């Protein structure tokens, strides 16, 4: 017997003992409620609450009192809630009365399930409304109307949604119907709730019958839905018919949520299809074709929700064409039928009746209805589809991930029958198909199906896929572990596969074991650990988390973590992941109190302070953040110290703050009681108080009120809670962020802030100037706008950024947080704000109006655009299309949203077609001309870029500031994204890169006007004459096609003229005009060749002196000739300086070719201009290489080295890129041969000499062209050919060489050359550096052996074995040297004293001479030793000397090897320079001095020299001065002879000579030699060392390159064993052993050449991907530095050269800055002057209008005077004259003159200056006033001002001359009707007036005088304003022009002003 039955029996029997014992048992069960109530006690108490016999309930309430409220059911309801929901008519009020009696009235406000109170539960009571009405009598109205549960429904709304009609009638009568219109959740009224009551249509019929106001049924809720919409969604046909009869059929067109009408909702009515059928009978078909906000029509929704019968009737009524319409994501009706899970009959109807094409039509993501049917339908549908479409359809990929039907069948969780059908009836390969993620149907089956299905699938598909990994390294085990639906598939795998599969790691994620602990139950994980062992639990996965972490995160089943707690040690729960979180932290965040208690028992209290996560939070923080269950937090509160809850994380937040944000009131109350009220003063993140956190609590409405009520007695704490945070916001501001309870929170606490009413509280602003209403708009909390105290007129707000409340509606508070809201409600609020006076066109400080500032979600924005595109809103919101900077909405949205999704509503809003919308440009401001594509590229929006390119927008579209879309992408760092999308859209990469690095950035270009002027300047009459002659001479050829020859295009002719004149200005002007010089190369060359027929010989020689030689080049060379080479050929240095910067992709090889061509011209011809060009070209190539290398990362540097070495490969393994080598031009030989030719032909005439020279040159060039082909070379080949020290010194080449040292041979740039002899026929694994080390070691051994050999020569004579070793060394080293000679046999040009020598490359190195000499002497010594053994032993001494000399020379070879090292290499370079540049010249000078002094001293000392003249005496000539020089004075002292005859040089010297010698001559000699010469040598060495200190590193790098080349060919086997290798290599060089390949024919060679991928430079599509990446990187780098490429290189130069280069660069940089600042200043002055001119013209316009008004008034006065005269004449008896009617003249609007472009022209000739002055005069004409001509009688007629047409100058006002008529009236009438004459009269004519001296009548005289005086005043005033405007313009033009032009303009202006004043004065005097 259960406890309740025992209790009932005891109460009924009145057994006191039993009652007491049972009460004690219940009370003891209640005392353990902190953990969990006793189930028996819970059952007993709750059963008593719902039992109609209230005996037990009364007993429990009497004995236990309030303790009964601690008992709650699993849904968190108390006895109060249960009684209110379940009691009947009589017992319900009685039970509630009983509870109120014992527990108090507050028990009725306790929150239960979903925060519902007793009143909510009573509203749910379908048994009886008695409890509801009883509660209404005892509670306040706000409890019924305002209190909402967690679903935001009030009790009132539940009543209308659940109760019957009778209850509703009583409730309506109870308050006179006021309850019917009270708004609740989402602004729903009783009419909405009744319409949603699908179980009681009578209630809706009752409202229809009783409510007279139809607007109640048309009021939209917050989502935009009216009761009409909801009725069609939930009611039957009778109800909707009655509703339409009441409201009319117009209600059906109303749009609700997401733009849906009643027809849409009728199709969504799954329960009753009566409303839909009724609509079909009564509505037209167009209602079913209207799309909602998603693009779905009612037809689509019907196929999604209705059955086949309804669909048949629908299609019968609308026609079969309705099936072709597309809805959301491009889906057709067939797609929706396939997705209809309710009924498959709709899809079967389509299969039976429609064509198969509708089933195979893809939507926007590529899915067909066929695929989606396998995803959502059963096997019978799959069978019908296969029968309809055939088996081939099963292989069709579909969707975004390219999945087949088998994939979709495996994904079908609803039914496995379709998959089983495929398994049983189709081939196994169907299940091997992989989708875009490399996932097979087998993987998805393990994720969604049962063990039975996967077992049958594996038996069908095979076991191979079970162990394979897909793209993200997941196996089938991972998918099975995530299968929450059926763990049987995972069990099956555990029993089938080896354990290692479940421990397979995934890159940056987890194993299958980790996934199992995250989602599976304890049974599954126990079984898994039993197989894998407990060691697997320590394995780390995603973010370093173990299986224990995942078990703690398992919300589905806490049993897994409980099992781990029982079986693992404590250390497993304290292991942190990568963020610092441990399993203990996750357990308190996700699990209940039982898990928390067991964990703390296991780990101890020390874990409470364990910090975790990136915010270093404690366990208390995580428990407070546990929204799922507060039990863990309550357990901590009950059992631990208060300090635990006051620990701060890194955001300064405590557990108390987080609890205030996440928990309910009861939980927080217990926590506050624990920590005390003083803790409420603690501040958290950004200095926020506890009140700020409580105000954000959306779980409990009373949280904030509880907080303030709890501290109302403490003023200090209260002040803290009311204070602001760092953002200047109080908790009142934060309330507006709480969309669930913000309004009631605000209303309850605002009095605490000292505000008299809520009206004033809403005026409080934060630090950003935002009031609570502004923040409510940001949070989309529209509940505040329904409050009665909101006054939008008074509560308008503009924050510090200039945003209004309308801006706030479109902005978001935090971009990372997206609030869901109703678009209709937002539109309603926006409409309220506009009506309240908020300026919807207002712009913030970023120049964005509310629409352009939108940060809303894309779908919400789309719905808003649709809403404001409606006719009633369109007129107002269409003004928001543009902002004041000229940006259109399409521009702003391109960077944030998908234009494809927004284009339709935008087109409707702007009244534009799609092409017009997409082509809109910015119409003003700095970005004028930018299109949508510019902004999409700037933001890197992939979808928009692709879409706009497909719509025809171009990347090369320029703005007015010459910025392309690519420029926008580069500036924002989005170039990689743009390249990726554009290339995938069909744009070739070459087009993009040409815009990344345009040629116009290379040079300082003139503006467009200056460029146009320059081209006109150079295009003189002679050029135009030549052009006309060329056109006329070829007219017969061009007549057929009516086209000019491409070589005769104007730009080609101008480029030819630039080449002819060597004009860089013309070239730059062409670039400004948009022409690429290299694109016109062929036309220019052809035109040069054609000029032979058209020009005279003198003109040819003057223009192109080498034209004849140019024509001698073969066609093959001309084909590859570049403009740079043409300029070299014709020696155009100015053009070369610019052309070298223009190549875009091949700037390195082009510049290297330029340097190769310039080298002979500079060295031989000594042309200083070409030398400067060479220096600039060298600077260019060095700067390019340095920039590319220094700024590169490792990957980019590898690409750079591949480019330099031509090591990119395509699919055919063709290496490249390679570039055409230098053209072998005859000009190279001219400098040498011209002098000799002239000497030989000096006797002959000029014509003969010229003819013979050209004939010989032509013959020589023809032979060269036959023998030489222009080979294609790599960049390194060109570097090697150029042989320039500065290039080897660059960091780029140096790093490349260092990299190649560490790699095995051959060198990359030599791989294209056929290897003549490869011993092993495969690549060696020994690197070049290793070969060098081995060789150097063995060479050192050789030197040691050789030294011993020549030293211990006697022993070697006795032991011949030593000779064998020496011979092996000699043979190996000699053969190596021979191989080196052959490898370096290429002929090089060496220039000495401006002479060219052609020598082999080998002989350009000094150390090679030592090698040859050393090896020659070694072999000579070997031969002498052999001869000594055979012939004469005395030769041994000679042999020893020769071998010692050989050793000496070979020692220098070791010095050369030491130059490899960085420490010794530069020093060896300095040593070489010292020896050859300083020491050798010094020795030569010393030799002359020594020899001179030696002869002088000898003859002075020994005048009587012996006749024998022995050698010993002659040596004194040299030994004497040398001994003196080195201080060996003992050899230089002689005794004096008695007689000069004895001074023979044998013992004594001449007395006089010896005295002179010992006296002054030795001093003089020592002064010159020892003091001067030695110090000179020291000074030379010092200077050279200082100069070479910086150069030596570069020279060393060149030596290192040469060593690299040498040792790349060396044998991997060291000497003395290497001679077989070299012998075999030399043998392979012999013609008899060389493989001679078959030469291809010309056609084959041409085809082969065309097939090379790097030959096609116009398209990059066929280039290797790596090469394309390099070109992109190169373009990005050159974009930054191209303009500075010609700057001097400072590194690796001497001190003076480096300083000079540095100063040049500084001057250039400062000059650029000055020019840039000057241009900016000029532009600002121009803008300022234009503004002043506009203001002056505006003032003038105002003055003119005022004067014309005055004229009109004077004419009126004149008319009045004439009327008075008429009356006077009548009185006097006279006949009055007809007076014309006075009409107001047309007001002439003076429009400001259009601004004229300011041109900056570098060349200003005098004629050009005069022409510009004339243009300035004509551009500022004076006002034109034409008065009646002298021939016409001047009477009362007057001239009428006429308005000029718009195309004429608005400053000119013409008065039309009246025609000569007989009467005044005729004249005036004729004048009014006559047209205005053209304004062509001159100033003199316009200002002349002649009047007849006699007037015809007094009235005419008065009228004429008054009118003309007014006209003259008006004219003088106009002249004054004109002078002011022209003076302003004059100042502007004087700044632009020269001083002479300014003076001329001033003289002209002064004369003009004087003439006008004299004319006006003369007219006044005449009048």
UniProtKB/TrEMBL annotation:
Listed InterPro entries: Ankyrin_rpt, Ankyrin_rpt-contain_sf, Multifunctional_ANK_Repeat
Pfam families per the UniProt record, alphabetical: Ank_2 (PF12796)
Transmembrane segments: none
Cleavable signal peptide: none
Protein name: Uncharacterized protein
Organism of provenance: Macrostomum lignano
């Amino acid at each position: 017997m259960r406890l309740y039955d025992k209790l009932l029996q005891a109460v009924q029997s009145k057994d006191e003992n039993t009652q007491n014992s049972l009460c004690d048992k219940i009370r003891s069960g209640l005392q353990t409620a902190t953990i969990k109530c006793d189930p028996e006690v819970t059952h007993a108490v709750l059963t008593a609450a719902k039992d109609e016999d209230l005996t037990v309930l009364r007993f429990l309430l009497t004995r236990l009192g309030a303790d009964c409220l601690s008992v709650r059911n699993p849904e968190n309801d108390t006895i109060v809630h249960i009684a209110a929901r379940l009691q009947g008519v009589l017992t319900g009020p009685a039970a509630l009365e009983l509870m109120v009696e014992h527990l108090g009235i507050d028990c009725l406000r306790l929150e239960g399930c979903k925060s519902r109170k007793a009143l909510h539960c009573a509203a749910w009571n379908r048994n009886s409304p008695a409890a509801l009405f009883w509660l209404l009598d005892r509670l306040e109205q706000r409890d019924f109307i305002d209190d909402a549960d967690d679903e935001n429904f009030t009790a009132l709304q539940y009543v209308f949604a659940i109760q019957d009609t009778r209850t509703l009638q009583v409730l309506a009568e109870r308050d006179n119907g006021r309850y019917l219109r009270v708004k609740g959740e989402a602004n729903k009224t009783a009419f909405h709730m009744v319409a949603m009551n699908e179980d009681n249509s009578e209630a809706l019929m009752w409202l229809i019958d009783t409510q007279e106001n139809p607007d109640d049924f048309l009021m939209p809720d917050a989502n935009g839905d009216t009761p009409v919409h909801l009725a069609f969604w939930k009611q039957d046909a009778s109800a909707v018919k009655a509703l339409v009869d009441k409201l009319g059929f117009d209600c059906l067109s109303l749009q609700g949520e997401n733009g849906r009408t009643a027809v849409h909702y009728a199709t969504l009515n799954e329960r009753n299809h009566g409303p839909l059928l009724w609509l079909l009978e009564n509505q037209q078909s167009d209602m079913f074709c209207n799309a909602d906000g998603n693009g779905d029509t009612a037809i689509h929704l019907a196929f999604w929700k209705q059955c086949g019968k309804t669909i048949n009737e629908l299609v019968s009524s609308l026609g079969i064409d309705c099936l072709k319409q597309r809805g959301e994501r491009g889906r057709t009706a067939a797609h929706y039928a396939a997705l209809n899970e309710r009924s498959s009959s709709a899809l079967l109807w389509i299969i039976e009746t429609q064509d198969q094409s509708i089933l195979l039509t893809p939507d926007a993501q590529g899915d067909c209805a066929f695929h989606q049917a396998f995803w959502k339908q059963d096997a019978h549908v799959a069978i019908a589809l296969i029968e309809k479409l055939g088996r081939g359809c099963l292989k069709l990929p579909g969707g975004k991930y390219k999945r087949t039907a088998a994939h979709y069948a495996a994904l079908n969780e609803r039914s496995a029958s379709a998959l089983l059908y495929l398994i049983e009836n189709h081939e196994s390969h169907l299940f091997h198909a992989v989708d875009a993620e490399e996932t097979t149907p087998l993987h998805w089956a393990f994720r969604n199906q049962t063990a039975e299905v996967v077992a049958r699938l594996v038996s069908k598909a095979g076991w191979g896929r079970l162990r394979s990994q897909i793209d993200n390294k997941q196996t089938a085990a991972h998918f099975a572990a995530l299968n929450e639906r059926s763990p049987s598939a995972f069990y099956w795998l555990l029993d089938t596969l080896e354990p290692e599969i479940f421990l397979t790691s995934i890159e940056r994620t987890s194993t299958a074991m980790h996934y199992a602990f995250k989602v599976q139950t304890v049974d599954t994980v126990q079984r898994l650990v039993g197989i894998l062992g407990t060691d697997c639990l320590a394995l780390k996965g995603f973010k370093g988390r173990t299986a224990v972490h995942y078990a703690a995160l398992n919300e589905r089943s806490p049993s897994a973590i409980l099992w781990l707690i029982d079986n693992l040690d404590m250390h497993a729960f304290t292991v942190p992941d990568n963020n610092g979180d441990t399993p203990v932290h996750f357990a308190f965040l996700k699990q209940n109190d039982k898990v928390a208690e067991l964990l703390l028992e296991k780990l101890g209290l020390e874990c409470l302070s364990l910090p975790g996560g990136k915010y270093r939070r404690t366990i208390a923080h995580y428990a407070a953040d546990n929204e799922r269950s507060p039990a863990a937090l309550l357990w901590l509160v009950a059992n631990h110290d208060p300090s635990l809850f006051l620990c701060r994380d890194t955001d300064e937040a405590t557990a108390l703050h987080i609890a205030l944000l996440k928990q309910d009131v009861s939980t927080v109350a217990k926590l506050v009681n624990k920590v005390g009220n003083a803790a409420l003063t603690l501040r958290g993140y950004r200095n926020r108080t506890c009140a700020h956190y409580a105000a954000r609590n959306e779980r409990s409405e009373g949280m904030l009120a509880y907080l303030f009520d709890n501290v109302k007695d403490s003023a200090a704490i209260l002040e803290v809670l009311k204070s602001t945070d760092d953002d200047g916001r109080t908790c009142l501001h934060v309330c507006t962020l709480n969309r669930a309870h913000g309004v009631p929170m605000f209303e309850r606490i605002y009095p605490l802030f000292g505000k008299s009413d809520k009206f004033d509280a809403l005026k409080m602003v934060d630090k950003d100037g935002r009031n609570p209403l502004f923040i409510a708009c940001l949070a989309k909390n529209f509940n505040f706008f329904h409050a009665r105290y909101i006054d939008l007129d008074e509560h308008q707000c503009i924050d510090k950024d200039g945003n209004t409340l309308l801006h706030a509606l479109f902005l978001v508070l935090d971009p990372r947080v997206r609030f869901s809201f109703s678009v209709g409600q937002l539109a309603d609020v926006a409409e309220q704000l506009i009506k309240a006076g908020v300026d919807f066109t207002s712009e913030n400080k970023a120049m964005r109006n509310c629409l352009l500032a939108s940060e809303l979600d894309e779908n919400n924005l789309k719905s808003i655009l649709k809403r404001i595109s409606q006719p009633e809103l369109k007129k107002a919101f269409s003004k928001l299309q543009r902002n004041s900077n000229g940006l259109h909405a399409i521009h702003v949205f391109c960077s944030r949203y998908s234009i494809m999704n927004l284009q339709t509503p935008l087109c409707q809003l702007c009244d534009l077609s799609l092409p017009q919308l997409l082509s809109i440009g910015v119409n003003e401001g700095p970005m004028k001309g930018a299109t949508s594509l510019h902004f999409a590229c700037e933001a890197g929006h992939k979808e928009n870029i692709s879409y706009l390119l497909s719509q025809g927008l171009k990347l090369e579209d320029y703005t007015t500031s010459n910025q392309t879309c690519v420029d926008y992408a580069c500036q924002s760092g989005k170039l990689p994204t743009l390249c990726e999308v554009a290339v995938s859209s069909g744009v070739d990469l070459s087009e993009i890169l040409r815009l990344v690095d345009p040629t116009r950035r290379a040079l300082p270009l003139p503006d467009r006007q200056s460029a146009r002027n320059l081209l006109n300047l150079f295009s003189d009459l002679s050029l135009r004459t030549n052009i006309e002659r060329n056109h006329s001479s070829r007219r017969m050829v061009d007549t057929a096609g009516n086209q000019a020859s491409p070589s005769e295009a104007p730009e080609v002719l101008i480029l030819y003229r630039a080449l002819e004149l060597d004009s860089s200005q013309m070239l730059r002007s062409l670039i400004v005009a948009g022409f690429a010089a290299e694109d016109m190369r062929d036309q220019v060359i052809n035109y040069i060749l054609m000029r032979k027929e058209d020009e005279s010989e003198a003109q040819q020689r003057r223009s192109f002196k080498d034209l004849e030689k140019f024509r001698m080049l073969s066609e093959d060379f001309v084909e590859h000739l570049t403009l740079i080479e043409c300029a070299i050929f014709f020696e155009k240095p100015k053009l070369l300086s610019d052309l070298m910067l223009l190549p875009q992709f091949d700037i390195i090889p082009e510049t290297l070719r330029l340097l190769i061509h310039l080298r002979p011209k500079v060295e031989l011809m000594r042309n200083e201009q070409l030398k400067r060009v060479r220096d600039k070209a060298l600077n260019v190539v060095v700067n390019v290489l340095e920039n590319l290398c220094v700024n590169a990362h490792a990957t980019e540097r590898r690409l750079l080295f591949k480019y330099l070495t031509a090591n990119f490969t395509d699919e055919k393994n063709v290496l490249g890129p390679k570039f055409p080598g230098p053209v072998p031009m005859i000009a190279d030989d001219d400098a040498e041969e011209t002098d000799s030719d002239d000497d030989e032909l000096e006797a002959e005439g000029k014509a003969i000499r010229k003819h013979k020279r050209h004939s010989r040159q032509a013959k020589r060039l023809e032979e060269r062209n036959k023998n030489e082909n222009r080979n294609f070379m790599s960049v390194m080949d060109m570097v090697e050919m150029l042989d320039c020290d500065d290039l080897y010194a660059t960091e780029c080449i140096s790093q490349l060489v260092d990299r190649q040292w560490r790699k095995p041979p051959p060198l990359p740039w030599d791989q294209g050359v056929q290897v003549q002899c490869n011993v092993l026929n495969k690549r060696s694994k020994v690197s070049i550096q290793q070969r060098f080390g081995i060789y150097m070691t063995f060479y050192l051994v050789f030197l040691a052996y050789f030294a011993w050999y020549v030293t211990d020569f006697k022993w070697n004579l006795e032991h011949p074995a030593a000779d064998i070793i020496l011979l092996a060394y000699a043979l190996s080293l000699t053969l190596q040297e021979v191989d080196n000679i052959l490898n370096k046999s290429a002929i090089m040009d060496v220039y000495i004293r401006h002479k060219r020598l052609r020598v082999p490359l080998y002989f350009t190195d000094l150390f090679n001479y030592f090698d040859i000499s050393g090896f020659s002497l070694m072999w000579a010594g070997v031969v002498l030793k052999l001869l000594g053994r055979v012939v004469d032993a005395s030769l041994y001494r000679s042999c020893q000397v020769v071998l010692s000399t050989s050793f000496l020379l070979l020692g220098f070879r070791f010095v050369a090897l030491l130059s490899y090292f960085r420490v010794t290499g530069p020093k060896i370079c300095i040593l070489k320079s010292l020896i050859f540049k300083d020491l050798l010249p010094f020795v030569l000078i010393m030799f002359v001095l020594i020899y001179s002094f030696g002869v002088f001293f000898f003859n002075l000392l020994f005048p009587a020299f012996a006749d024998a003249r022995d050698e010993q005496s002659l040596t004194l000539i040299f030994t004497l001065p040398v001994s003196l020089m080195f201080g060996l004075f003992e050899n230089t002292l002689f005794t004096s002879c008695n007689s000069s005859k004895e001074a023979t040089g044998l013992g004594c010297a001449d007395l006089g000579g010896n005295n002179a010698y010992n006296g002054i001559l030795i001093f003089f000699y020592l002064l010159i030699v020892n003091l001067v010469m030695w110090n000179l040598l020291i000074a030379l060495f010092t200077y050279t060392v200082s100069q070479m200190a910086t150069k030596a590193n570069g020279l060393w790098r060149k030596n290192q390159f040469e060593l690299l080349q040498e040792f790349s060919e060396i044998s991997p086997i060291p000497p003395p064993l290497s001679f077989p290798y070299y012998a075999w290599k030399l043998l392979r060089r012999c013609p008899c052993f060389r493989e001679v390949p078959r030469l291809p024919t010309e056609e084959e060679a041409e085809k082969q050449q065309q097939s090379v991928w790097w030959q096609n430079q116009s398209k990059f599509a066929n280039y290797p991907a790596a090469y394309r990446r390099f070109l992109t990187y190169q373009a990005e780098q050159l974009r930054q530095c191209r303009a500075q490429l010609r700057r001097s290189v400072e590194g690796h130069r001497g001190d003076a050269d480096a300083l000079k280069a540095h100063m040049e660069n500084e001057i250039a940089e400062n000059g650029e800055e000055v020019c840039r600042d000057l241009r900016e200043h000029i532009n600002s002055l121009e803008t300022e002057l234009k503004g002043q001119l506009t203001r002056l013209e505006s003032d003038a316009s105002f003055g003119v209008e005022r004067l014309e008004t005055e004229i009109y008034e004077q004419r009126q006065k004149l008319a009045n005077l004439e009327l008075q005269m008429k009356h006077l004449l009548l009185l006097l008896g006279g006949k009055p004259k007809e007076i014309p009617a006075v009409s107001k003249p047309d007001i002439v609007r003076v429009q400001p003159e259009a601004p004229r472009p300011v041109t900056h022209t570098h060349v200003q000739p005098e004629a050009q200056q005069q022409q510009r002055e004339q243009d300035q005069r004509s551009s500022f004409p004076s006002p034109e006033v034409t008065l009646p001509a002298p021939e016409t009688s001047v009477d009362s007629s007057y001239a009428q001002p006429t308005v000029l047409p718009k195309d004429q100058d608005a400053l000119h006002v013409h008065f039309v001359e009246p025609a000569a008529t007989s009467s005044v009236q005729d004249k005036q009438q004729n004048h009014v009707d006559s047209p205005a004459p053209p304004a062509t009269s001159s100033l003199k004519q316009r200002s002349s007036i002649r009047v007849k001296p006699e007037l015809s009548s007094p009235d005419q005289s008065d009228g004429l005088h008054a009118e003309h005086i007014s006209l003259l005043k008006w004219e003088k005033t106009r002249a004054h304003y004109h002078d002011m405007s022209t003076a302003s313009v004059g100042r502007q033009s004087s700044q632009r022009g020269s001083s002479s032009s300014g003076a001329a303009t001033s003289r002209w202006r002064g004369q003009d002003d004087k003439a006008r004043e004299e004319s006006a004065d003369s007219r006044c005097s005449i009048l």
